[in-house]
Amino acid sequence: MSNISLTVDEINQLAPLDIATNELVRAKFIQIYEAMWTPSTGVSGEAAYERESRNFNRILSEKEDLRKSCTRFSLFTAFLDVAISGLTLDPGARAQAYLLSRSIAVDSYQDRDGNTKKKYETQCVLIISGYGELLHRARVGQIRHADNPVIVYTEDEFEFGERNGNKFVNYTCRLPHTSGNIVACFMKITRADGSIDYSVMLPEDWSRLAAFSARQNRQWDNQRRQWVPGNPNALYGKQQDGSLKIDTGFLIAKCIKHAFKSYPKARVGRGTQLESQQVDEVEINDDLYGLEDGSTVNASTGEVMPKHDTGFAPAPDTSAGVTINPDNAGGSDDVF
Q1: CA dihedral 121, 60, 84, 142 (to 10 degrees)
Q2: E strands along the chain, which residues?
Q3: Neighbours of 212 (CB within 10 A)
Q4: Is beta strand 272-274 parallel, antiparallel or unpaired with respect to 116-128?
Q5: I want to staple 265 with a disulfide (CB 3.0 to 4.6 A). Which of 1, 192, 204, 281 is the partner?
Q6: Among candidates 57, 52, 60, 146, which has minimal Cα distance to 90?
């Protein structure tokens, strides 16, 4: 890759809506996309840039929290991460990726009592949805194909298990589904070597996720000085008797999202998170973003860190990304 120089100071001086339209950012986006995806997709970097720059600024215009709260450097990396992922920010029920603001731990300090506290800042993060991850893993050769998830009702015949080390599903649809009672959701995945895998979700799985959602939505009661239990995401469909009647589209998205938790790590940008919480397979370093030689950048703060000799000590491993606020970790379970 030829060097397209960008300085952190220049990035931080840009208005949020000017980041994606900056000429140097444009050139870097096109360069990354054409190097990583044009040979396999046939889509030019310029065409991808024109589409995604419009998407990016549309989202910033609609979401005030992203535009006003997130650091300029995180907006910059999130936009270039769209090129790194090769996905689109196009909206819709099957959106491949989207932007969220997240509270990220960037520093620590000692309080008056000597306790270590963390300092947080708001950053823009590119989130790859389950649908986007399906496409991404197929493009990088981890899977060949994944069928659409299937909802299983009480009336259907369904069997799931493992035989001789291989998972199997036996399913027969029995219409009509008069009960409306969902007993499972499964998705068939064809791996790169031609072997078959299944992602299966059962009522106990989404009951566990609903309980987690309720804990995430708890509220503090100042009068009682204690946490008050919250309600799970409405799409879990909690009934008055306490039972769940989960939304089918929501369940399908969950099944896709949780399908790859045991799969190898996938390559994503340093400002990107997969909904299945996989991390980087290949290091995304500062050179890919086109930052000037002679310095590195703290991915959380945007601070320029001059290069220095570390002696015989190995360089710190930053491939796992930044520390996430524990209060928000795992919150992507309720994004859909």
Answers
A1: 90
A2: 97-110, 116-128, 143-146, 150-153, 157-163, 166-172, 182-191, 196-201, 219-221, 226-228, 272-274, 295-297, 304-306, 323-324
A3: 16
A4: parallel
A5: 281
A6: 52
Instruction: Tell me the backbone φ, ψ of residue 186, rounded to 5 degrees.
Output: -140, 155
pLDDT at 3: 65
Burial of 246 (0-12, 13-18, 19+ CB in 10 A): buried
Residue 155, H or E segment: none
Single pTM value for the model: 0.67
Provide the token pair at 150: 């299937």
Distance of CA 125 to the CA centre of its chain: 8
The distance in angstroms from the start CA to the end CA of the chain is 37
| pLDDT per position as a tens digit, 84-143 | 999 999 998 789 999 999 888 878 888 888 888 888 889 999 999 888 988 888 888 889
- Residue 199 bridge partners (DSSP): 187
Residues of the chain with pLDDT under 50: 278-284, 293-296, 298-304, 306-336
Q: Contact at 8 Å (CB) between 260 and 276?
A: yes
